[in-house]
UniProtKB/TrEMBL annotation:
Source taxonomy: Bacteria, Bacillati, Bacillota, Bacilli, Bacillales
GO cellular component, one term: membrane
Subcellular location: Membrane
Protein topology in the membrane: Multi-pass membrane protein
Origin species: Jeotgalicoccus halotolerans
Source species, domain of life: Bacteria
GO molecular function, one term: ABC-type transporter activity
Protein name listed in UniProt: ABC-2 type transport system permease protein
Keywords: Membrane, Transmembrane, Transmembrane helix
Domain called ABC-2 type transporter transmembrane: residue spans: 22-376
Matches recorded under Pfam families: ABC2_membrane_3
Record-annotated membrane-spanning stretches: 21-38, 169-190, 223-248, 268-291, 303-322, 358-380
Classification via InterPro entries: ABC2_TM (IPR013525)
Length: 400
């Protein structure tokens, strides 16, 4: 046990103190702080519009409609009786035509506000000429209530309310963030763990290692150390994101982009964290097994191709299957252990899948992880002192 912990601590702390680990983690956390304070950062570089005194050449009837409308769009514009910075000349009211003369150019936002106010005033004039009552005008702006019904599963002929296809934007962001983060960390740590194992096997260091510790014990210590480091990195990034969210005034930003939590948000967060951790453990276990076949560093990328391809397929399914997440093909792939961490949260996001499919997916992954770790230990034990130059030759030798 002491030898196991010695190997574990050596690998764990060397990776934890590595510059790549610290820099990557800090960059991602800094990116989240920037994202949560984006409105403030933009405000630092975005100079406020200067006050504009606008002189309007029109009758009192037009001004009574136009002035409050313009104020609702832009508070930096003030209607002036005379000596204004710009002159808005109403050339015609039927149809409404206007000309804006100014000494200096005004900001694009102020130009847009004047256009919007003129359009709104024009609509008011048109409605007035139609001699519609206030009730008729309000009815024109009312939304038409539509109820979408779908036939019930039984044969009663009744209909029930259809599920809304609208996906919560905040939940979608959480899902995409977890999938992208998992994909990046898998590729990073899978390469690291395979490189560590292959590098030891390609040098004489392995002869001294196996004389002091059992090969399987040595491999498991390295695998668990790498898994622990990857899980800590996920935890630091998640914690950093929560701190950034807590200490930032995100209410205005959330309102601006229409981001709000619902009864599904907590469930998505919990399951995304679980599947990210299990996905990392599974792929790193497989990477360790593949690294055990490699004796030369030249064969490393070729040996890791299965991990790369499987993670890429799962990643692209998760990103591209949003519009048809209820398809039977997506359901089937969600139970394939290498795609489960990518696809199962997608089903939860779009279809609000129940807890049972999630639990089944988690159990499938745990069983696959146990098998992968057992195979990795078996392969490493049989090939630790092998000098075969090819991966295929190593596989044939192990099978004998």
């Amino acid at each position: 046990m002491n030898k196991f912990m010695t190997t574990f601590n050596l690998t764990f702390f060397s990776k934890l103190k590595a510059k790549s680990f610290l820099i990557t983690t800090l960059i991602i956390i800094a990116g989240m702080f920037i994202a949560f304070n984006l409105d403030k950062i933009i405000g630092l570089f975005d100079s406020d519009d200067e006050e504009l005194r606008l002189e309007v050449e029109a009758d009192e009837t037009f001004l009574s409609v136009f002035e409050p409308t313009l104020q609702s769009y832009d508070e930096t514009i003030e209607i002036a009786g005379e000596d204004g910075d710009a002159v808005l000349d109403i050339v015609n009211t039927d149809p409404l035509e206007a000309e804006l003369r100014m000494n200096e150019e005004i900001s694009s936002s102020q130009e847009e506000s004047i256009k919007l106010a003129l359009n709104e005033t024009n609509r008011a004039y048109v409605l007035q000429t139609l001699e519609l009552s206030e009730e008729e005008i309000s009815r024109m702006y009312e939304e038409v209530p539509v109820e979408f019904l779908v036939a019930s599963d039984n044969e009663s002929g009744n209909f029930e309310a259809a599920d809304s296809d609208e996906t919560n934007i905040l939940n979608m962001i959480i899902f995409y963030f977890s999938v992208i983060l998992m994909f990046i960390i898998i590729l990073n740590y899978a390469s690291q763990i395979a490189t560590e194992i292959a590098n030891e096997k390609s040098s004489r260091v392995i002869e001294m290692i196996v004389s002091s510790i059992r090969p399987t014990q040595h491999l498991m210590a390295k695998v668990l150390a790498m898994i622990s480091v990857s899980v800590i990195q996920v935890g630091l990034i998640t914690g950093g994101g929560l701190i950034a969210f807590y200490f930032s005034d995100t209410s205005a930003l959330l309102d601006q982009f229409g981001l709000e939590t619902n009864d599904q948000t907590l469930k998505i967060v919990v399951y995304c964290i679980i599947f990210v951790i299990l996905g990392l453990i599974l792929y790193l276990s497989v990477a360790a097994m593949l690294g055990s076949f490699i004796n030369r560093m030249e064969d490393l990328q070729q040996g890791l191709m299965p991990v790369t391809f499987l993670s890429m397929i799962g990643y692209f399914i998760a990103l591209g299957a949003m519009s048809f997440a209820d398809n039977i093909a997506v359901t089937i792939t969600s139970y394939f252990p290498f795609f489960t961490p990518f696809v199962m949260p997608l089903r939860l996001l779009v279809n609000d899948t129940g807890h049972m499919p999630m639990i089944i997916g988690i159990l499938i992954m745990i069983i696959t992880i146990i098998i992968a770790l057992s195979l990795a230990g078996f392969v490493y034990k049989r090939s630790v002192l092998s000098t075969e130059s090819g991966i295929i030759k190593n596989i044939k030798r192990i099978k004998k």
